[in-house]
Design goal:
six-stranded mixed sheet, globular, Rossmann fold, alpha/beta, 18% strand, 7 helices
Length: 209
């Protein structure tokens, strides 16, 4: 049996400023560093064979802090964040005013969102699910971690659970939270934890969308 810990990166400047982040390479902010340290303490007894991370620094730094030299941290491009084209680094309030129809799709059924430069959620789901199965082939048992982004983990979880659209807003994933799934070839995926955040205490805040 393989145990897979899925971790959303800690808070970044882009999160705090309510910006669409996409591939913009935001660093962890002070609160995000505290979140990552709290995550490290929470998972200190887990013996990871490897930790795989999105190459974006908010995820990779979260992975480094959490792993704390106990396991190798390996870049995995298949788990990098969604590409958002012209929306990247733009305040969500600005996007809601400039593109009101697209904003409403984002708020209600983002799986159907399409515009120039966007990597759609079905596209994200396909490449993340493929990347996950590559890790499963590499690690038939033990414990591994995947550190990624909300807009990657949500469609990935939907694929793992066989959820149909709309799924995006049915799953809550806080910054620096972790989820845990077991994988057995004969059963597939079994989630035992989703959005564990008990260790984050006062480090969490609600996001606009």
């Amino acid at each position: 049996m393989l145990e897979i810990y899925f971790i959303r990166h800690g808070e970044s400047v882009g999160n705090k400023e309510e910006r669409f982040r996409g591939r913009c390479d935001f660093e962890l902010n002070e609160n995000g560093l505290k979140q990552a340290e709290a995550l490290r303490q929470e998972l200190a007894r887990v013996e990871f064979s490897a930790v795989y991370s999105s190459p974006l620094q908010r995820a990779f730094r979260t992975a480094q802090i959490m792993a704390d030299s106990r396991a190798p941290v390996i870049e995995a491009a298949g788990f990098t964040n969604i590409a958002l084209g012209a929306w990247e680094n733009q305040p969500k309030a600005y996007i809601s005013q400039k593109y009101p129809e697209l904003w409403q799709i984002w708020l209600t059924r983002p799986e159907k969102l399409v515009f120039d430069g966007l990597e759609t959620l079905p596209m994200v789901q396909k490449r993340a699910y493929q990347a996950l199965h590559e890790l499963i082939a590499r690690h038939p048992d033990g414990k591994i971690a995947v550190v990624s982004h909300r807009a990657v983990l949500k469609p990935l979880f939907a694929a793992m659970l066989g959820m149909s659209e709309p799924y995006f807003w049915k799953i809550q994933l806080d910054t620096a939270s972790y989820s845990l799934s077991e994988y057995r070839p004969e059963r597939g995926f079994t989630f035992t934890v989703i959005n564990q955040n008990r260790y984050l205490k006062n480090y969490l805040r609600e996001e606009l969308g």
